Amino acid sequence: LMVRNILGISYTPKDFSARIYSASYGNPLFTQEILKNLYLKGCLFVNENDGDWDTEYKDDYDSIMMPESMESAVINQLKNIKEMDYKVLEVVSIFNSAVPIEILKGFFDNADSEIEKSIDDLIAQGFLVREIADWGYVYDFRNRFLKRFIYAKQDEDDKTKMHQKASVLLKDYVDNVTGDSEELIYHLEKSHNWEMLIKYCLENAGKMEALRNREEAIKSLKRAYRAFPPELDDIRKAQIMIRIGDNYSYNVDKKLCIEYYKKAERIPALANDKLLHIDCLNKIANEYCDMNELGRVEKYLDKIFKLLGEIDYPAGYAMAQYILSK
């Protein structure tokens, strides 16, 4: 049935299917790649006389040379591919999602018509698929295994440069066309552009917070936090951890909320940033107050009022008094 459905025919070629099954053991993706392999080699073709699928092996199906694995099937398919077509596949492979043709063209000095023809050829050969997105046509691999295979074969330095190129091309596209920064963030991460990665992760977190999508906001904030060197005690790390704690607080996850507030508190304490230190302590005390752990509330309020005795911070004092009144 699988072979019949892939070929789009009304009958089941039992002997032919049995030979395919002997190699694929019914694996749908491997079955599809074996058929594609036979088609690209010209062993499986459409008979011009009757319009039906035909094979040069006729009834001698045992003589069909089968790939031993998905990898060998993919390697066989790539043997006769044109140089330009393979370069296009290399570019598409670095993207995490389907890529617009305008972005693909940015990687080549060739004429647009040459790139478009290459893409059309790759679609006809079953390597790429064309999809519709809100901003037009986008392109991706039909086979995820092939995508991973081609990406893995590329030199690491070349991949880093391509990710860097992709991030430059995508920045304007995200800012002016799609507004979706997820793919851009992926390339910033892969090209080790940490400052820009932090910027877009924080922007994305802000959008998610506005939509009350706490889980996605936390995901973006944690991604921004991981972009900092572990040994660096940057005040921005504390601010990010406070926002993570705030989002956990909205989700009523007190344990994780307090955990991130405590992590955040360590940095302004070391940096002698008393205002931010007081903010962290107030947040911890407030959560413990909501949990009715009054002993811990008293402990943190003592720390807060001690710091408030050293600086003038009306907002921090007002929050501490609010907690005390509760």
As a percent range, the share of helical residues equals 55-70%
Major sheet characteristics: 3 strands, antiparallel
Using DSSP, what is the number of strands?
A: 5
Count of separate DSSP helical elements:
17
| Regions with little confidence, pLDDT below 50 for 5+ residues | none
- What is Rg? 29 Å
Please provide a written account of the structure.
By secondary structure, the protein is mainly alpha-helical. The chain has 17 helices and 5 strands. It has helices at residues 2-7, 14-24, 28-40, 70-78, 83-93, 101-105, 112-124, 144-153, 156-178, 182-190, 194-210, 214-226, 235-250, 254-271, 274-290, 294-308, 314-325; strands at residues 44-46, 53-55, 99-100, 128-133, 136-141. The strands form 2 sheets. Strands 3-5-4 form a 3-stranded antiparallel β-sheet. Strands 1-2 form a two-stranded antiparallel ribbon. A hairpin with a 2-residue loop joins strand 4 (128-133) and strand 5. Helix 2 crosses helix 3. The protein starts with a helix and ends with a helix.
Give the arrangement of secondary structure elements.
Layout: H1 2-7, H2 14-24, H3 28-40, E1 44-46, E2 53-55, H4 70-78, H5 83-93, E3 99-100, H6 101-105, H7 112-124, E4 128-133, E5 136-141, H8 144-153, H9 156-178, H10 182-190, H11 194-210, H12 214-226, H13 235-250, H14 254-271, H15 274-290, H16 294-308, H17 314-325
Antiparallel strand pairs: 1-2, 3-5, 4-5
